[in-house]
Amino acid sequence: xxxxxxxxxxxxxxxxxxxxxxxxxxxxxSVYMLSTSxxxxxxxxxxxxxxxxxxxxxxxxxxxxxxxxxxxAMWMASLGRxxxxxxxxxxxxxxxxxxxVSQVEGxxxxxxxxxxxxxxxxxxxxxxxxxxxxxxxxxxxxxxxTLYKFMxxxxxxxxxxxxxxxxxxxxxxxxxxxxxPLSAYMDKYALETHIVALSNTKIKEVIGYKLKRxxxxxxxxKDMVDEYEWKEEGNWPIL
Length: 239
Fold this sequence. Notes:
Helix content: 40-55%
Structural class: mainly alpha
Organism: Lentinula detonsa
Distance between the termini: 20 Å
Protein name: NAD-dependent epimerase/dehydratase domain-containing protein
Strand order of the largest sheet: 1-2
């Protein structure tokens, strides 16, 4: 999820971290810049992992997160639960600790069959890890538009530079920013490759929801960057 006032996640974090390196006027310590000679030496499987069709990373603008939630509520209210279940119900699999069911008031027995309307929600971009990175970097001049990969074995060393630079940046801001919802810290999970590939066909067909921001593109990221006012002069955010 991305968009104005989204303070965390796979889109906000790289922008925040990039602003730190822009402020420090240093290359990102957390990436390997792949020159032509390095690309030639990589095995085919490594290159395949970075091909445009690999590693789906579906995206969603916050306007559609809110819009679809509201549309779903209105749809449900007009039909009632029973009819909504018949049109869009999916079995909800029990994944909790059976011995603790009795400790939670209102929790159904572990062996009961639960059905609830369920919809996946993503935009129409069919984004990949690579295309998301290219879109994000198109808005920030201090990023190089190139392939990169994170060093799994150096996460804390990487964050030492991120967080230290971030603290220096917000303290030296005019005026200083002692508190901000943004963070330059990126844990190992954030630096790993994850697959997010869902279909939005059901919510379109059943509820008739029409995406307000169907494509993840430069303009959508620009709105987000402008909202936090990442300034090109020194590349720091004024919040």
